[in-house]
Amino acid sequence: VALDWKQGTGPYPDVMRVSRDETGDVVVFTKYEVTRFKAGIPSGGETALNDILVVVKDLTGPSQGDGTSALTFAVGTVEPGGRVWTGGWDGGVQGHHFPTNKYLSAPALGDSGRVDDMAVRGPLLYAAHRGTLRSWRDGDADWKPVGLPAGSNPKALLVSRGETLYAGGSKGVWREDAGAWTQVWASGGATGDEVRSLGEDAEGNLLVGTRDGLLILDGRGRVLGRHLRGKVVTSTADGPEGRLWVGTWDGGLHVRVDG
User: Which residue, 131, 173, 182, 238, is the most exposed by fewest CB within 10 angstroms?
Assistant: First the structure.
């Protein structure tokens, strides 16, 4: 695999999440903006990210956490049908439906604390918030706790292509199997190994974003490589033609092309 990394030019340097939807578009969540890149292809080679299909800046709507009208994004996730869900820095949650440009409501996770990550599996929306994992579905009055081993402190979530739920935190990565949790990878306790994001590449390898770069793990949890050392990796998404999109905190977007 060629390690040809290119850094994108925008839209904002603090990338909170990159996700690929069912159409092949790549949706990039930054602190103040949600951008959809048509067919997951940045224009101008691999450097200029100007081929923007839809840009929604400063989405306004009720922040369920503190009642303000504007929500800056701490994280976001995409589900089929053009719906995106965003979590705020105040425990607030709101959704947006791209095709109709309408807002979607969900209960707040709390009145304070950043929403660390979100993921969708079937009818359930999962969220990591203040060291706990919870789930919610349309019609529920509130979020329900999802059991994780004590002290796991989840910061990152992933629903794989096989519909397996993963959670990552300060002590490593866990996988859910029929309601039970198995540790896939142990961090060793180093600050740089704290898991900040989880993803999956085209080969089914687990992409683990940490405070010190990107780890690639196989299905058994063995480390296949580590890249972008020194960067806080906040999210990953595989794109067409072997591209791997990586969002970083304060370092913007990076795109790798497999050779």
Answer: 182
Of all helices (H) and strands (E), which one includes residue 35?
strand 33-37
Strands, sheet with 73-79, edge to edge from the N-terminal-most edge strand: 73-79, 83-88, 93-97, 102-105
- DSSP notation for 205-233: -EEEEETTEEEEE-TT--EEEEESTTS-E
Please name the residues in contact with 240: beta carbons below 8 A apart, sequence gap of 6 or more: 24, 39, 40, 41
Q: For 30-43, write each residue's pLDDT tens digit.
A: 766 677 776 655 54
**Residue count of the chain:** 259
Closest to 118 (Cα-Cα) out of 170, 165, 163, 162: 165
- What whole-number distance in Å separates Cα of residue 206 and Cα of residue 223? 10
Residue written as token pair 């999109």:
245
**Distance from first CA to last CA of the chain, Å, rounded?**
6
Residue range 181-226, pLDDT digits in tens: 999 999 877 767 899 999 998 889 999 999 999 999 998 889 999 9
Please tell me the pTM assigned to this model: 0.78
Pairwise CA distance, residues 20 & 26, whole Å: 4
